[in-house]
Specification:
The chain is of the alpha+beta class. 32% of the residues lie in helices and 35% in strands. The protein contains three helices and twelve strands; from the N terminus they run E-E-H-E-E-E-E-E-E-E-E-E-H-E-H. The strands form five sheets. Strands 3-10-11-12 form a four-stranded mixed β-sheet, with helices on both faces. The chain is elongated, with a radius of gyration of 19 Å. The mean pLDDT is 90.
Length: 138
């Protein structure tokens, strides 16, 4: 168990952060839909600056390296010119909420069509897959 009471689960040799995410993976795998696990969206590139000074215990650091900020979804599917970003989420941390807002803003600025799907139960994932398969068959 982790601090959010989610249980790390291994399926097909893949480590998932929760049973919900693992079960969503099983449903997608069994649906025969093409999908990608853990798609990465770059929210901010890494950079180095000497215009910012951070004081540490040893004194002042003159050159600061800022790491990239990334949003990592759970699954990505693309059908009929629509990209679906699927997030299996039980607990939304403050950091997740901030990254999600930035990601959603970037997606709205894209020329591509995105649908962000937040899943909180296996039933929701089953319904999402069912509805997606219906649109593909038509």
């Amino acid at each position: 168990m982790t601090k959010y009471n989610n249980k790390i689960t291994i399926v097909d040799g893949i480590k998932f952060h929760s049973k919900l995410e693992a079960n969503c993976y099983i449903l997608l795998r069994n649906s025969k839909l093409d999908f990608t696990r853990q798609p990465v969206m770059l929210l901010q590139e890494k950079f180095t600056t000497d215009k910012l000074h951070l004081k540490n215990q040893l004194g002042i650091v003159k050159k600061v390296n800022i790491s990239a900020i990334k949003y990592i979804g759970d699954f990505l599917l693309s059908y009929n010119d629509i990209t679906y970003i699927v997030e299996a989420k039980g607990v939304e941390t403050a950091l997740y909420k901030v990254k999600e807002k930035i990601a959603l803003k970037l997606l709205t600025e894209s020329d591509e069509k995105y649908i962000f799907v937040k899943i909180i139960s296996i039933a929701e994932m089953s319904l999402f897959i069912y509805q997606l398969l219906k649109t593909i068959d038509n």
